[in-house]
UniProtKB/TrEMBL annotation:
Signal peptide: none annotated. It holds the Pfam family Longin. Belongs to the synaptobrevin family. The keyword Mitochondrion does not apply. GO terms for molecular function: SNAP receptor activity. This is YKT6B protein. It is a lipid-anchor. It comes from Tychaedon coryphoeus (Karoo scrub-robin). The lineage of its organism: Eukaryota, Metazoa, Chordata, Craniata, Vertebrata.
Length: 137
């Protein structure tokens, strides 16, 4: 069971844009990592774009499950995990991250924000904290 990506996005009027993201692509071949990360960013934006405000959904994309939560204020979160990761845990994580993000980052910064301009550093910590370590025999 593994988490690969945790993203916070803003679903604005014209389009969706990424505010902050954390990735764990360590299980992929070194030469594949940047393209896998791009795929995850693109998929997160696409799923958010196609989801209604105030909705939650889980979408299967290749061998991944993408869990999306779009709040009614336009703030959205996406977790990309493998098929075995518990769905309920993903939505609990998204609730926690979006609540904390909305308390720490001004709502006025969401429409124009980008990963370079938004200062919110908790995503990497959440991604590693919620990572399920499989026991090695």
């Amino acid at each position: 069971m593994r988490l690969y990506s945790l993203s916070v996005l803003y679903k604005g009027d014209p389009k969706v844009h990424l505010l902050k993201a954390a990735y764990d692509v360590s299980t992929f071949n070194f030469f594949q990592r940047s393209s896998v990360q791009e795929f995850m960013t693109f998929t997160s934006q696409l799923i958010t774009e196609r989801s209604a405000l105030g909705s939650r959904a889980s979408v299967k994309e290749q061998e991944y499950l993408c869990h999306v939560y779009v709040r009614s204020d336009g703030l959205a979160g996406v977790v990309i995990a493998d098929n075995e990761y518990p769905q309920r845990v993903c939505f609990t994580l998204l609730d926690k991250v979006l609540d904390e993000f909305s308390r720490q980052v001004s709502k006025m910064d969401w429409p124009s924000g980008s990963p370079a301009t938004i200062s919110y550093s908790a995503l990497d910590g959440y991604l590693s904290k919620y990572q399920v370590q499989t026991s090695r025999t």
